[in-house]
Specification:
- One of its GO terms (biological process) is response to stress.
- Residues 2-136 form the HTH marR-type domain.
- By secondary structure, the protein is mainly alpha-helical.
- The chain has a single domain, classed as Winged helix-like DNA-binding domain superfamily/Winged helix DNA-binding domain (Arc Repressor Mutant, subunit A).
- The chain is 73% helix and 8% strand.
- The protein is built from 6 helices and 3 strands; from the N terminus they run H-H-E-H-H-E-E-H-H.
- It has helices at residues 2-28, 34-44, 49-56, 60-72, 94-117, 121-145, and strands spanning 47-48, 76-80, 88-92.
- A 3-stranded antiparallel β-sheet has the order 1-3-2.
- Strand 2 and strand 3 (88-92) form a beta hairpin.
- The radius of gyration is 18 Å and the shape is globular.
- The relative contact order is 0.08.
Length: 148
């Protein structure tokens, strides 16, 4: 029974997260969750389209369209690699990305900080442990589904 409650809450959390990110995407001028892929650039910095495809799980064709949309909004730019002119590096404009997205997440972030602050240090450690283990499980499942 305990698993059923947690599983249902986890699913509801995931569904609600998707709905929120869809709303943020629309406000940012994107369709779908395109804006979430900007997080890879914020985390990792410049990378090739192939590296983004590997990180995101998207096909290279989908990544090309994604990069085109980001480039139109001046959030990334393509440049040729100095060591191999056939290789294209996608370079993010982190300040432009943050200027676009930060205002859309500001209230959510503030309220999330308040929520987390309402828990004891011990409770936060339990929540952290759950998320770390859940992320590991999802990564394992993703890798198996992607035959990695």
């Amino acid at each position: 029974m305990k698993n059923d409650v947690v599983r249902k809450l986890s699913q509801q959390y995931a569904y609600t997260s998707i709905q929120m990110h869809e709303a943020v995407a629309r406000k940012a001028g994107f369709s779908g969750t395109d804006h979430k892929y900007l997080g890879f650039f914020i985390q990792k910095g410049a990378m090739t389209a192939g590296e983004l495809a590997t990180l995101s799980g998207l096909t290279t064709g989908a990544v090309t369209g994604l990069i085109d949309r980001f480039e139109k909004k001046k959030l990334v730019k393509r440049r040729l690699a100095e060591d191999d002119r056939r290789k294209v590096i996608i370079e993010p404009d982190t300040s432009a990305i943050m200027a676009l997205l930060a205002p859309l997440y500001k209230e959510f972030r503030n309220k999330s900080d308040e929520l987390i602050a309402s828990f004891s240090n011990e409770e936060v450690k339990i929540i952290e442990a759950y998320f770390l283990k859940a992320i590991e499980l999802m990564s394992e499942t993703t890798n198996k589904l992607n035959d990695k």
